[in-house]
Amino acid sequence: MGVTSTRNGSPFHRVAGKRCLLQLARVRFSPIVMAQSAYLPGVRIEHAAAHDAPRHAALVRITHWIHATSFLALVLSGIAILLAHPRMYWGETGAVGGPSLFDLPLPFVLDVPIRGPGRYVHFLSAWVCLLTGLLYVISGFLTQHFRKNLLPKKSDLALKPILQVVSNHLHLKRPTEAESQTYNVLQRLSYVVVLFVMFPLIIITGLAMSPAVTSVFPFVVTIFGGQQTARTIHFFLFIFLVLFLLIHVAMVILAGFTKRVRAMITGYSAARKERS
Amino acid sequence: MITKVSRRRLITTGLATAAGVSGLAIAAKIADRYGLLAPDHHGILGAGEAITYGAMRLLTSHHSLAREFHRSEISKVHPVNGKHPETEPYQLLLAGNFADWRLTIDGMVVRPASFSLDELKRMPSQTNITHQACEEGWSFIAEWTGVPLSYVLHLVGASPQAKWVVIHPFDDFWDSIDMPDALHPQTTLAYNMNGGEMPTDYGAPLRLRIPRQLGYKSVKYLSRLTVTDSLKNVGDGLGSGAPSAGYSWYAGI
């Protein structure tokens, strides 16, 4: 493990060989390195016991819960907005009296005052979601969190290992504690798709419904072929992301709710007493 | 030891909070100075609104144009929200086919004026075919003809210090827009829709058309425009009737 950190030549490691105090201070307290050190178990091992490396870095834990809160707020406020007009169209325009793509089996809620406040909440939580998302993505690239922990390993992208994981899931097999220390190939694939396909798309389709944004960047809406198409895709992405959330929570329960949630709050799956 | 840590933590938390609050207050002052602060920026929900409006004002230049469409793309269905006002002043004007109707412009202008419909129609006109989306989710494309609001504002000599134009209609949906939107080339006082007279329920005799924002900002049944540098004393001070009903003042979303 120690070799790994030498090979990738992190700034943290370079310090060991140099004597410049200023540099030491700078590197030690740079937020990137502080976040990075949590991802580099090798560096930690030299100073402390192996089990002291947290399962999730502090930045991942903090952004996870802020993101979870703002995402829930986006879902609920999104439903409040949707209920004003639960009818989907394709193309540039669409309204009652004209053809729809499909009608959701939901009432048109116009008299209950939920969608106005819903809009305020939707845009506030969209900002929180976007800004924490950006923080997470930038740090994920800088610390190589994505490359190491989220990008599926080449060896895992074969039929056999994938089928093995699928079979584990279908048999509702609880992962071992060792398996819980890393993400399996299905987790990695779904996290990558959610992070780099669905979230960017739901943001862009949201922006495509803003006449102010499309006055500056018309392609944001024209790539989808119209504002109502963008609204419909925004809706489908909402369905996919909610399904992802439900499966995510189901898997957490299956894998051991207390331990997994504790790992995402404190960084460790075991309680403090058990660890020492 | 524990006391020391918690005291230190208390002091740092306190200082951080104080710095955060005063930082926010300074940010709000600066944003206000550069016309980046929405009138409904108060409270927790207003925070999102403040960021959205500030970001949009930085992003959209004064001349970024809302998309325009071809005549063949005009929608066949144009739903309308709400009926024309039942109030007596409006009913009387409607009965007289708006011959006695006038649009008053006052406030921070050199030459306060009021214009009849014919006078407005003799001014330079602009026609645009634009998308209008209701905040509920539906939308349509229509052709609108009117006089650019910027032309009227120059005619009456709106003050360079002015920041907002308050829009008073015959119904309850009073509103206001900022000067960048008021002077925007596509913002018009529209009297024609799809080549004909403005239909009554669509805002006759004159409505605002502001295609870079959602439909509810395109106020119908106009009566008076007031040019001002402060919205504090207008209505509830939130810039529009919309925020108290739960809708954001800025609808460029």
Provide a descriptive summary of the structure in words.
- The complex is a heterodimer of chains A (about 280) and B (about 250).
- Helices cover about 65% and strands about 0% of the residues of chain A.
- Chain A is an all-alpha fold and about 280 residues long.
- Chain A has 2 domains: about 55 residues, no CATH class; about 220 residues, Up-down Bundle (Fumarate Reductase Cytochrome B subunit).
- In chain A, strands 1-2 form a two-stranded antiparallel sheet.
- In chain A, α6 runs antiparallel to α7.
- The N terminus of chain A is likely disordered.
- Chain B has one domain: Sulfite Oxidase, Chain A, domain 2 (Alpha-Beta Complex), CATH 3.90.420.
- In chain B, the strands form 2 sheets. In chain B, strands 2-1-10-5-6 form a 5-stranded mixed sheet. In chain B, strands 3, 4, 7, 8 and 9 form a 5-stranded antiparallel sheet that branches.
- In chain B, a hairpin with a 5-residue loop joins β1 and β2.
- The interface between A and B is large, with 39 and 43 residues.
**CATH T-level topology of chain B:** Sulfite Oxidase, Chain A, domain 2
Tell me how many strands of chain B there are: 10
Residue ranges of chain A: pLDDT <50 for 5 or more in a row?
1-50
Number of separate strands of chain A = 2
H-E order of chain A: HHHHHHEEHHHHHHHHH
* Average pLDDT over all residues of chain A: 83
Low-confidence stretches of chain B: none
- Largest contact between protein chains? A-B, 39 and 43 residues
Structural class of chain A: mainly alpha
Q: What's the architecture of the largest domain in chain A, going by CATH?
A: Up-down Bundle
Specify the CATH homologous superfamily of the largest domain in chain A.
Transmembrane di-heme cytochromes, Chain C
State Rg of chain B: 21 Å
The percentage helix of chain A is 55-70%
Strands ordered across the widest β-sheet of chain B: 2-1-10-5-6
Strand content of chain A: under 5%
Total helices of chain A: the number is 15
CATH architecture descriptor text of chain B? Alpha-Beta Complex
Strand content of chain B: 15-25%
The CATH superfamily of chain B bears the name Oxidoreductase, molybdopterin-binding domain
General form of chain B = elongated
Please outline the major beta sheet of chain B.
Answer: 5 strands, mixed
